[in-house]
Design goal:
With about 425 residues, this protein is α/β, with parallel strands linked by helices. It is built from 15 helices and 12 strands. It has 2 domains: about 25-85 and about 140-415, Thiolase/Chalcone synthase (Peroxisomal Thiolase, Chain A, domain 1, 3-Layer(aba) Sandwich), CATH 3.40.47; about 85-135, no CATH class.
Length: about 425
Amino acid sequence: MALAPGARNLFERPYPTHAGLLGDLYACVPRDITFPRQINSGENQDLYFAVQLAFDALVDAGMRPHSVDPVRGTVRLGYAPPFSASTVNWLEHTFFIDQTMDIIRRFFRSAPEDALAMVRSSLVDSLPAPDARSFLAGLGHRVADWIARECSFTGGATTLDAGALSGIAALRAAIDDLRSGRADVALTGAIASPLNRSILEGLSGEVTFSTGAELVPFSKDGTGTIPGEGGAFFVLKREADALKAHDRIYALVRSVACGAQPMDVMLQTAADRAEAPLASIQLIEGDGSGIADADEEQVAAVQKLWGEHKPGGPLVGIGSVKGNVGHCLLASAAASILKAALALRRKVLPPQMPAAHPLDSLANLCSPVYLLNDARPWITGDPSSPRRAAVMVEDLGGRRAALVLEEEPTTEDRQ
């Protein structure tokens, strides 16, 4: 995708100069997904990308994507396809061609009908061939349906759009499936479609894009965010079932809180629901969009809860994966959860994109919050307390969410 640095758009605002693009990673293995026919360029490629990610997650969890026996499972996916290849192809075959022919008729009023028919035929021939399957596959809800069918899941399959909170909203729905007994396995995740001009046009009217080549979260030099693409899936089970099956557990989801309250309220709510003292949370995976004012508000929310640092008092490291992959829009929460879960699994406080000039609030020695510019071994100092991480996410509309993750149970807990 060509990005024109400094170019102005419909809103008289510049496009981003850089973006976190998937490139060849936006792909799938056709033989794994058993496509019923040849894929064409006018179809919803997001569907195949999402199915591949879902399959990879199941394989990592020791499960078979194409199960012979039915699985009491559900699929909850954060996804919103405003301009997929499939929907655009159908618009081109219908509305766009009609509009084009109407414009031609206005400019060439005396043009013979047979000549106009040839023009229309040429336009149609230049487009990917349409069919009913590709049209239906382009509808957002069909992505979750397809995944459930391919995985032999017998429970519900839904697609939801909660903006940047989509990954957390889908996760919460999956947790409800397990708690209610509707499912024994819940597959959840979120994907962000490849960026294109239409998406960037709309986003630039609301989002402050960076004028530089990097997105550096929690930095005084932050001029804006950088958009990104991607996706992630998680396989969820009830803790007792995962322990009984001796599954590899990346992290335990202890609580989720979503709402319109200030971020400090959401974080405190998540900690209370998890029955986790704030001092036991040593890692904050923040929203960290690279917009200095927004990042400052995130830090202030954490500092408000932890209070002024005193010698020997608890410290909490903060960072954001957006500095590595960009702001992945609907998949941004899923990316944050993935990073925090891996940190717990590997017992490492992970670094973010280093900030040469951190926010003044982070450079203050009285602050209990410090910036994770470098990787550190995760030492708790309290063997009786498990490692815990919190994830904070904020959407453009002012909705916020926080969740608390905990490291996998000890060997004694597994017995």
